[in-house]
Design brief:
alpha/beta; two-stranded antiparallel ribbon; TIM Barrel; eight-stranded parallel β-sheet; globular; 38% helix; 12 strands
Length: 294
């Protein structure tokens, strides 16, 4: 039997429907209203989950960058102040958690530091996502592993040896590994989708795909290649302010993505050759010596 992980009540792995995650990340720009709008879209279209990112700014931002000023939607401010601006508080995450429960959609997050893991543990999320930036952060990986919850790890900007060390730190149990390329947006020449097969062959665990490209065709190709989880950034408008917006999908695109993934699942079938009833009349018409034996 093909390996699976379980996210809340959903089995994820080959032989099961593709688990589709809408990465909200920081596309909410620190506004709870926008986060809820994206949750609405994800739930209405039929995504399985939405994902956020959780940072402790003082731990994640190098100190020499704290006082660098940058333009933001709230005016010019220090980078450390901006990082706090786009982080939701505990009460806001409580509201997000309740709202996702109301909308019957899973939610979880990528913790960028050990304190963020402790923060998320208080919400009893169904799994942890490890972003590509954290693949080499052994302390964070160990902290997540100790929770005993399912783990999803992306593999962008990582060598195979770094991926192997990350996997060994987390352990193969309850682990899903996502192929990814960490550029925003990613040029299709650097997607290297055949890595899905490479990772599947080496680790023999469920493999997913976290895409940052423009368009949907290559993400759909990932499903054909065996990705059992798909993650794409979602946004209300790709022209909104923010570093991840350009590599995100707007609502109409999310609708097409879900529709086409489900169509591909149906079209792939079981790989067992058969003659369908719909072919019988055509066979009788076109073959000189039709054979309708099954």
């Amino acid at each position: 039997m093909a390996p699976t992980i379980k996210i809340a009540s959903t089995e994820v792995g080959l032989g099961h429907p593709v688990y589709i995650v809408g990465e909200i990340g920081i596309n909410h720009n620190g506004e709870l209203k926008i986060a809820k709008q994206l949750i609405d879209i994800a739930a209405e279209i039929g995504l399985n989950a939405v994902k956020f990112q959780k940072r402790t700014p003082e731990l994640c931002v190098p100190k020499d960058q704290w006082d660098i000023e940058r333009e933001t939607p709230w005016g010019r401010m220090k980078y450390i102040d901006y990082r706090h601006k786009v982080e939701f508080t505990e009460s806001e995450y409580r509201e997000i958690s309740d709202y996702c429960e109301l909308k019957n959609i899973d939610w979880f997050a990528s913790p960028w530091d050990e304190e963020a893991v402790d923060f998320l543990e208080s919400f009893d999320i169904p799994c942890y996502k490890i972003g590509s930036a954290s693949v080499t952060d052994i302390d964070v990986l160990k902290k997540i592993s100790k929770t005993g919850k399912p783990k999803i790890m992306s593999s962008g900007m990582s060598t195979m040896e770094e991926i192997r060390i990350g996997v060994a730190t987390l352990g193969l149990d309850n682990l899903l590994l996502c192929h990814s390329t960490s550029s925003y947006p990613c040029d299709i020449s650097e997607l290297n989708l055949n890595m899905i097969k490479t990772l599947s062959s080496e680790f023999e665990i469920p493999i997913g795909y976290s895409g940052h490209e423009i368009g949907l065709a290559t993400t759909l190709a990932a499903v054909v290649l065996g990705a059992c989880l798909i993650e794409r950034h979602i946004t209300l408008d790709r022209a909104m302010w923010g570093t991840d917006q350009a590599a995100s999908i707007e609502p109409q695109g999310v609708t097409r993505l879900v529709r086409d993934i489900r169509a591909i699942e149906t079209a792939l079938g079981d790989g067992i050759k058969k003659v369908y009833d719909s072919e019988i009349s055509v066979m009788r018409k076109l073959r000189r010596s039709p054979n309708i034996a099954n």
